[in-house]
Amino acid sequence: MHRSFWLEQALASTSDDPNPLRGDLTSDIAVVGGGFVGLWTSLMIKRRNPAVDVCIVEADLCGGGASGRCGGFVMTWWPKIVSLTALLGADEALRLVRASEAAIDEIEKFCTEHAPDAEFRRGGWLWTATTGAQLGAWEEVVSRAEALAPGTFRRLDPQEVARRSGSPQHLAGVIEPSNATVQPAALVRAMRHYALACGVRIFEQSKVTRIDRGTMVTLVTAEGTMRASSVVIATNAWAAALRPLRNKLFVISSDMIATEPIPDRLDSGGGDHRLANTRLLLPNHRGGTYRLR
Predict the structure, then answer these.
(1) pTM assigned to the model
(2) Which of 42, 74, 139, 176 has the greatest number of C-beta atoms within 10 Å?
């Protein structure tokens, strides 16, 4: 089975037992999916009430899906403030964005205490343009953010944009300082270890093939069943395989590329390597733009 670069790193120094689900078991709450959502949900349940029996049922290994393959960007919802406001109103949009800011603080605290190998780095993110036509593409978002929370984004002069990005191709831009980066697979595996220590039962290599509803919900796998009063579906794109959710999801992809280590080239090129990302606009062959992150 293919393993991402991140997950290969995270698994290199461990010999964790995947412990597949076998036999007929019960729990108070069953979580389908052992990625960020499933593990964080389980940890929050245990934080609120340690007596609740929480079980995670994961088709592969924790972090084997999107959580161990992503770009490792820890971002707020400020870039979505315009659409959030249109959908929910200003007060609720601001509440959600503030919650996303608080989540980054929580992740930083968790990494400091339990996941040093996740290499949490908070350096913000840049949104830049590389042609004159793209200048100001961020203005609607920045203006809306400024009205709700002054100072969220900071406009940079061209010299600072070039210095931070390491390239004179970036003509102008803004920075939002709260964002961070992590080694995502190291974080998700650390969350797995901590969840086990908190009493969460985790069954990996146990693909759920059927969900039967009733007074108790039953998860069916190849070698067993899990019956629970409540079930949390935390499977990201794989939820599209479940009939009740199939017509409510639209699956898209996101590709990550890793090079061989090039510290000398990075140092000579300049730039702020703590940045979560540089979001830029590049012209494409159809006359529109590509957005790279």
Answers:
(1) 0.87
(2) 42
Helices 139-148 and 90-114: angle between axes, nearest 10 degrees = 90
CATH class of 18-70+184-248: alpha beta
Q: Is 127 helix (H, G, I), strand (E, B) or coil?
A: strand
Burial 64-88 (b: 16+ CB within 10 A, else e): bbbbbbbbbbbbbbbbbbeebbeee
Domain boundaries, the chain: 18-70+184-248, 73-182+253-259+271-292
Distance CA 193, CA 33 (A): 15
pLDDT (tens digit per residue) in 19-60: 999 999 999 999 999 999 999 999 999 999 999 999 999 999
Report which DSSP code applies to 142.
H
| 224 and 49 Cβ atoms separated by less than 8 Å | no
